[in-house]
Amino acid sequence: MKNSSRRGFMGKAFGAITGVGAVASLYAMKRSWDPLPSVKAAGFTTLDMSTYKENELVTEKWRGKPIFILKQTTEMVKKAKSNPRDIERLVKVGDDYFMVCLGLCTHLGCIPGYHPEKKNFLCACHGGMYDFTGDVTKAPPPRGLDIPPFKIDGNKLVLGEEGSEYKKMLENGTTLRA
Amino acid sequence: MAHFTKATSLHDWLNQRLGIDTVRRVMATEYWIPKNINFLWAMGMILAITFGLLLVSGIFLLMYYQPNVATAFDSVNYTIMQEVGYGWLWRHIHGVAASVVFLIIYIHMFTGIYYGSYKKGREMIWISGMLLFVAFSAEAFSGYMLPWGQMSYWAGMVITNLFSGGSLHANGLVEWIRGDYVPAQAFLSRFFMLHVLLIPLAILGLIGLHFGALRIPHVNNQDGEEIDFEAEAAKYKAGDKANSKVIAFANDFMSKDMMVVGIYLIFFFYLVFYHYDFAMDPVNFDPANGLKTPAHIYPEWYFLWSYEILRPFSTDVGLIAFAFAQVIFFALPFLDRSPNTVPASRRGLFKFWFWAMLIDMIILTAMGKVPPQGLFSTIGFYAALTFIGLWILLPFITKFEKKV
Amino acid sequence: MKELSILVVVTIFTLLTYFLVEPFAHSQMHKHVESEAFVYKDLPALTKKGDVAHGKELVMGAGACINCHGIKVEGIQSPMDPMIAVQAFGVNTPDLSNVGAVFDPNFLAMHIKNPTHALMIEHRFDESKGQMHPMPPFYGSGGDLDQEVADMIAYLQSIAPKAEELTPKMAFETACGRCHTINYPYTKDGKAHPAWTQIGEKPTFKKKQDALAFETKVLDYQDKLKKYMGALPPDLSMYIRSRGEHYIKTFIENPQNYLKGTAMPRVGVNAECAEKIIEHLKDVGDSKRHMREEIGKNIMIYIIIFAIFAILWKKEVWRELH
Fold first, then answer.
1. Searching chain C, which residue's CA lies closest to the CA of residue A20?
2. How far is CA B262 from each of CA A18, A24, C309, rounded to the nearest angstrom?
3. Structural domain containing residue C12
4. Which of B147, C62, C208, C218 is deepest in the core (most CB within 10 A)?
5. Angle between helices B87-115 and B254-274 (to 10 degrees)
6. Cα separation, C202 vs C210, whole angstroms
7. Class of domain A40-171
8. Distances in Å between the alpha carbon of C264 and those of C119, C124, C231?
9. pTM (2 d.p.)
10. Do residue A32 and residue B83 have CB atoms under 8 angstroms apart?
11. Are C129 and C192 contained in the same domain?
């Protein structure tokens, strides 16, 4: 009776074979949860940068997330140039500078609001603040607004592709990979 | 409250709280099965495994299926079949398993009939099994609606029309079932609900009942021999396994089951990858069109025999015959008047009844699919009469059966 | 031994049932049509050797082809955009760039001389009742008619892509794409292709107005096409699964085989192009077929090993039970 449920060698071997099959089927299950190819293919947004007005925040959509586009005034550019950290955050298309950021607070993901007179962002959820380049000026957010991968193509901006300017931003730590 | 001591191991800890040793003994190591059985006794395990395959593949289909008349067809044929990683595999497994499960159910049923496994205390096994058959039929039918192809739509139309009751013209009932004048959004949504929730719940409950019903009368054996399970179990436990007439569920019975399961799965996966058209009708790859009936419409093969009993008669007689065919198998333990629980081969006239019934049902199945014209209609008509006649004969031929 | 004979009985009854409900029942339901390998025996063979230069003259001049057809490879745009063409003829006039590679030369010759005969739609176009096919027959420009037709075909073949350059998608679009849609986008060799409509590939639009405007155009086209054909030709996305290769091939070879009196014309493609059309339908409707075969092989190997080990385990457990 004692050994009635104990498995011999073949029992163990059979159990192992069954286990291999179970693990292999887990792989198929994992693949079924992956984002669909059509979702991934739709992950690119092309923006015509000539349509934006200075100091007017426009929210575009990329991969379902809000993207803040803020064309800088000459004044803002001058101010940003005085601080290398700020000017590095801006995207230069033609002769114009733009703030192009993921419009989600780096604290916990609320959407900050823009104040055109004060030229700053305030996140109403926990009071975090950002300047007009998207850099953080008041905690709790741990860092400035993230910058989505982009590629400059003439006066167009392709979101979702990593151009050389974006790669530079990653290298010098201006943004994390969004 | 029970007395708990400091556990000596994880096993001991669990054992004190859940009694896992007892569970294992009752469910596996001391759950006694007769030794005198053949591979047909593994059909239960095969059904359980196939049901498991249906459940798992169904879960992944459910993640992308959209129960909406505008998007259902494309969500199946485009999203699942072309886009989702391994989506095509889940669908092929689901489609093929849905068909093969009925083949195994029929083998399981005819095994039970052949060996008389519905008699003398085993009536509830038979009845709960028949309830499972009905639940699986409803599950298969509701699932067939979901791809919203031409066959889905027209099967939905025709089968729900059965509920008009012929001359009763119960159109109100038909519309109530559909939630619309024709199969449309309400129909698809509610059949989706039935397919993924209500009927699977019923099936799980019925599987529990079916297993429970086996407990007291025990599993039958190849010769219908009445076994003293306690005495034989004592012999087994004393170590005389070779002379005991019983074996333990695990690992003895289980290992034989898995051997049959392994061979079955070769057959099953061959169908999934290389021969799936029989289970996934090509006509259903045309999107539903309420203004155009396909040239040939027919149910899936496992419904054909009862469909054919409906076909050759006028509407009302056909419906009565159809209703008769649906319920008559439930009555088998009571229509069989013989006390003999032995294989059909040792039961005189019943032997002929068994083979006649099997062949008649195969003829009905074949005639249910071919176009209902000429010779086929005639054969179908006589096969349907034979089916009814065999059931009427059953109590008489078994009553006069010699006691073995 | 007893188990084996039981297995034989179960297998025989299973196979018998399978045979009756599948091969047998389907043989009773559907007519079996053998393919003629796309040779079009009823059409006379070209006997003359064509002259490309003269053919070009005819196509551009006396043949008046370019009054209705575009030839993109020669830089000739269609004189009518699809929407105007469908208004005038009920269907868009095809561009002639690829026809030399797609269609059988005997079929093309008959199509130039007598379109309704080549297309097998004489039942729909009875001249005595004033039912004229949109394409007027070519009666010759004064020389030997057969020689002139051969010249035109030689020219069309000279500008057509080589067999290896003609992709399955091009073959489909030239042969089927003016009447049939493919609603499903697909990816092949890593390249994504959008859905196909009768007026071309379906673009992606940023603005909903533009998307709706395109859809309206397609629907307008389909309305005209429906009037011309009697019914809207079906979408072919899943045809490889709903009809299967054999049916599609024998159907496009001669649609009258299956549907007597159908408005669907004989397509007239050559055998190689028929294969390409099938491949395109597979790319769209059975895009995972290669993966299915590969995974299938692996799973079959696994499951056989699984069964062997199950048998060995059973033998081990039952050794002391016998």
1. C302
2. 10, 17, 9
3. 1-30
4. B147
5. 130
6. 12
7. mainly beta
8. 9, 10, 10
9. 0.92
10. no
11. yes
Q: Are C316 and B82 a contacting pair at CB < 8 A?
A: no
Q: Which two tokens stand for residue B307?
A: 């469909």
Per residue in B112-134, pLDDT (tens digit) is 999 999 998 999 999 999 999 99
* Touching B: C residues 165-204, CB under 8 Å: 183-184, 186
User: What's the domain count of chain C?
Assistant: 3
Q: Which residues of B38-63 are buried (b: 16+ CB within 10 A; e: fewer)?
A: bbbbbbbbbbebbbebbebbbebbee
Beta bridge partners of B178: none
> Which residues have CB under 8 Å from A90's CB, separation 6+?
A72, A77, A80, A97, A98, A99, A133
**Looking at CA atoms only, how far is residue B248 from chain C in angstroms?**
10
- In chain B, what are the domain boundaries? 16-293, 298-404
The parts of chain C modelled with pLDDT lower than 70 are none
**Nearest-10 crossing angle of helices C289-318, B87-115:** 40
> What three-state secondary structure class fits A97?
strand
**Listed residue (A171, A1, A146, A153) closest to A68, CA to CA:** A146
Q: Give the helix, strand, coil percentages of chain A, each rounded to 5.
A: 30, 25, 40
Q: Where are the alpha helices (DSSP H) in B63-184?
A: 72-74, 87-115, 123-145, 150-161, 171-178
Residues C195 and C297 in one domain: no
**Interface ipTM:** 0.94
pLDDT tens string, chain B, 404 residues long: the values are: 678 999 999 999 999 999 999 999 999 999 999 999 999 999 999 999 999 999 999 999 999 999 999 999 999 999 999 999 999 999 999 999 999 999 999 999 999 999 999 998 999 999 999 999 999 999 999 999 999 999 999 999 999 998 888 788 888 999 999 999 999 999 999 999 999 999 999 999 999 999 999 999 999 999 999 999 999 999 999 999 999 999 999 899 999 999 999 999 999 999 999 999 999 999 999 999 999 999 888 999 999 999 999 888 888 898 899 989 989 999 999 999 999 999 999 999 999 999 999 999 999 999 999 998 889 999 999 999 999 999 999 999 999 988 87
Q: Are residues C150 and C26 in the same domain?
A: no
Q: What is the DSSP letter of C110?
A: H
Tokens encoding C290: 């290669």
User: Chain B residue closest to C302 (CA)?
Assistant: B266
C20 & C51 share domain:
no
- Whether the pLDDT of residue A159 is over 80: the answer is yes
- Residues in chain A with CB shorter than 8 Å from the CB of C208 are none
Residues of B whose CB is below 8 A from C299: 269, 273
> For the structural domain made of B16-293, what CATH number should be given?
1.20.810.10
Do A13 and C302 lie within an 8 Å CB cutoff?
no
Length of chain C: 322
Annotated domain spans of chain A: 2-34, 40-171
